[in-house]
Design goal:
- This protein has 330 residues and is mainly beta.
- It is flat.
- It is built from one helix and 18 strands.
- β16 and β17 form a beta hairpin.
């Protein structure tokens, strides 16, 4: 069955601010209600709390906006322009992404690659070039948002994935959980004005000024209490760090994920990964993700890498582990 959220060919724009519209108009933003990404390499994992929306390398992002802020009685005919604004946090491999309408419900805190809703189908959306980090992308979603206004029950949001024309694209966009740069994705809406503004009414008469009440007396300042004695300083606790490294061989033109695991009774505090040797071959190894493994963040450091050369490359993943009486995940 042909997908009802086919976006068709639309213009894309790598610029801000919002394009000017013709005639009287009202501009407003639709709040971002939910965002997350899923990864086919980790089909059971949810990434709704991460600060970036990952696209490419097996990942695709999902976004949904709340149109309840539209004035009551707004019709699709009144919508002049709807632009999706995204902030490019980082680019792993330049290329292009595709924006597609979604056809099913999903929740930010539970969506995974295994239960994600269907989309309009690769190649049916809007392709947008992604070349560099620290810039905004603007995508014209006017046609799709008109459908949502006419049929509010069809607003399941959009998906972002690597375009068919550039399947090796890897890009990271700010999510609403990103407190570092705080460039939350937004949907800029421009509505045609309802009509000419009426003449202002006559101003009412100024009311009489009431009498100023008497000022109360200032109370006495209480005496400062004595300072308590300083407690005895406790003994510093032991700090035991363990470094764990894993060396692997990554085949040419190949992508793989590797893990460095902390020993029993220790907890992950940091880590890193990359080419094993400090030579020119290190330029061939690209890091797509480096950080705690989502399904075991206190024990395992996960690193997803791509070898862009035709030859095998030696890589190394290392984890910093420490003993601790307790660990809290937030």
């Amino acid at each position: 069955m042909k997908n009802k959220h086919h976006l068709g060919s639309a213009q894309w724009l790598v610029a801000l601010p919002l394009a000017l519209c013709v005639g009287p108009a009202l501009a407003l933003d639709a709040p971002l209600a939910a965002d997350s990404h899923v990864n086919s390499l980790l089909p059971g994992n949810n990434f709704g709390s991460l600060p970036t929306l990952n696209v490419g390398g097996g990942a695709s992002a999902l976004l949904r906006f709340d149109l309840a802020t539209l004035p009551a009685g707004t019709t699709a005919a009144r919508l002049v322009k709807a632009n999706l604004i995204l902030y490019v946090n980082r680019v792993g491999a330049p290329g292009a992404i595709e924006v597609l309408g979604l056809n099913g419900a999903w929740a930010e805190g539970s969506v995974t690659a295994a239960n994600q809703p269907p989309n309009a189908g690769a190649g049916s959306g809007i392709s947008v070039p992604v070349g560099a980090a620290n810039q905004f992308l603007s995508v014209d979603l006017t046609s799709l948002v008109k459908q949502w206004i006419s049929n509010p029950g069809s607003n399941f949001g959009v998906a972002l994935q690597a375009a068919l024309s550039a399947p090796a694209t890897v890009a990271f966009f700010d999510s609403k959980e990103n407190t570092a740069s705080a460039h939350v994705a937004r949907l800029d809406l421009t509505l045609a004005d309802q009509g000419p503004k009426g003449d202002p009414g006559a101003p009412g008469a100024t009311g009489a000024i009431g009498a100023t009440g008497p000022r109360g007396l200032t109370g006495n300042t209480g005496a400062t209490g004595p300072q308590g004695a300083q407690g005895v300083q406790g003994q510093p606790g032991p700090v035991n760090l363990t470094y764990v490294s894993v060396t692997e061989t990554l085949g040419g033109n190949y992508w793989a994920g590797y893990t460095a695991s902390c020993p029993a009774n220790t907890y992950l505090t940091g880590g890193g990964c990359g080419h094993r040797d400090n030579n020119s071959a290190q330029d061939d190894v690209k890091v797509n993700y480096a950080g705690p493994r989502p399904d075991s963040p206190t024990r395992n450091y996960q690193c997803n890498l791509r070898n862009t050369s035709g030859d095998s490359r030696a890589i190394r993943v290392w984890a910093i582990c420490a003993s601790a009486s307790s660990v809290t995940l937030r």
